[in-house]
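Researcher: Here's a chain I'd like modeled. Treat it as a single chain, no partners, no ligands.
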Amino acid sequence: MTLRLIATDLDGTLLDSTSSVTPRTRAALDAARARGIHVVPVTARQPIGLRAIAGDADFRDWALCSNGAYATHLTDGRMLFTEELPAETIRTLAEALRASVPGLLFASVREGGETFVAQEGYAAIADLSDHKRDPKTMGGVPLDQVLNAPSLKFVIRHPELAPSALFDALTSLGLTGFEATLSGAPFVEVMAEGVTKATGLARLCSHLDIDRADVMAFGDALNDVEMLRWAGHGVAMAGADAVVQDAADEIGASNDDDGVARVVERVLAAG
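Model: Modeled as a single isolated chain. Structure tokens:
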């Protein structure tokens, strides 16, 4: 492959367990950019979460947020595309799931990832690390207000049940018209039908005139699987679930062992 673009997940992949960019990782990204290689964060986060680490990683250009639902330029704020989940689909999904799982709480990401609409009670079980937002700023509205508008990412959460149990319950409903995934965060994430990190990355690469064969992708969670399969070379982090490792061409070191940097250094040295 002729490496032209590095697509990397953040949490559990590029960032270490303290959510930091290590000096070695930063040096590897800088070396890639110096060769003219695009470095693109592809994340479940919104711009508010990217801003927290953008300076450390020197992210200034395109980023894919909400698991590929939209592409935003981190310097000038341009939006290349957005894919929203229709309000009717959100309501149908929420009502069906609430009928089988009592006690659920919901939130909706809107308006380029800048607006976060949380149901009453959601903030009480949220931490800053969950959405990179202070729960004190989340407020809380009646459920109907969470469900009444399109969403870039619809969040499903329970005070006690694990995200994997919620994901299984959602899958068992047999509903269609959306994409659901897990990112390692304490909730299920739902996007518009067909939206994955792979579809978002494909659209960005088309815009940049980059062939998928020249893309290297890094990831560690279920929401990275499609991207790892799509890229010319997919790298799963050590310790990732079996389904993630099976989707990759290579298993790298862990995020706490500069796994991304090690692979990038090797590829640059070979080139």
